[in-house]
Design a protein that fits this description.
By secondary structure, the protein is mainly β. The protein is 8% helix and 68% strand. It has a single domain, classed as Porin (Beta Barrel), CATH 2.40.160.
Length: 250
């Protein structure tokens, strides 16, 4: 997928591209709250910062309410709040808020040791107004963005009682912008993620991985190439099982 996207972009003045390389670290806490067999809520909190200079890049809180619609398919409605700074070299500190309501469809195809996943997400992006180096009042609509993510979840061991599970996760996501304000960067970005996922028990897992984030900027001829080290903690909570356990004790 990434190779195809790269070939597509090469048609557009490849020799004139300006690529800015950035190195970052992301810290992630994700909670998967399963209400029952049909409904669930997924929430993640992330802190992202540049390595050199050491400066915040983004902070985000995102939550998705999901409902199962068919075997291995689900539909989600979500909301995300961002604080963002894409340029660590400026001598002032301006974190620009952004809000994103979105909808998504998910599909998982389990096999023996591999699960193939697909996610299609449509989001609206609203940016806080900025006046020079300061925030102004209110938010303005920016653009719509379509995101498609393909994933492989590979089980690397044969755990007993769902303990000490080790998985390799590979994700690729392509994002496409559209709207009246989009002139040169219809292609927004491509992300490739490779990570190890270790769950000592069923309810808690730890992740460490690498993300390559290649993004076209609004000018069309400038790009970000970001190398990211990602650390994560995943907390899985099943309310229905907790309710059963309490009722049995009573």
């Amino acid at each position: 997928m990434g190779f195809i996207i790269s070939l597509w972009m090469m048609k557009y003045n490849f020799a004139q591209k300006t690529i800015t390389n950035q190195n970052l670290i992301w810290y992630v806490y994700a909670q998967n709250l399963k209400i029952n067999e049909r409904f669930s809520v997924q929430t993640d909190i992330q802190e992202r910062h540049f390595i050199a200079p050491f400066k915040q890049s983004q902070f985000l809180v995102r939550s998705t309410f999901k409902t199962a619609i068919k075997h291995n398919f689900d539909f989600g409605v979500g909301f995300c709040f961002f604080l963002a700074n894409t340029d660590p070299t400026v001598d002032y500190d301006l974190q620009t808020p952004e809000v994103r309501p979105y909808i998504e469809f998910n599909n998982k195809q389990p096999f023996k040791r591999v699960t193939v996943s697909h996610r299609a997400r449509m989001e609206s992006r609203f940016y806080h107004n900025v006046n020079g180096k300061e925030l102004a009042k209110g938010f303005s609509f920016g653009n719509m963005r379509f995101r498609y993510q393909f994933g492989l979840d590979i089980l690397l061991n044969k755990p007993k009682e769902e303990k000490h599970v080790l998985r390799l996760k590979i994700l690729e996501e392509v994002m496409i912008n559209f709207g009246k304000k989009i002139k040169y960067n219809t292609f927004d970005q491509n992300r490739v993620t490779v990570s190890l996922h270790y769950a000592p028990i069923k309810t808690v897992a730890f992740e460490v991985g690498y993300v390559n984030w290649f993004q076209q900027r609004a000018s069309g001829d400038k790009y970000f190439n970001r190398n990211i080290l990602r650390f994560g903690i995943v907390n899985n909570i099943h309310l229905k099982k907790k309710e059963k356990a309490v009722s049995q004790k009573i």
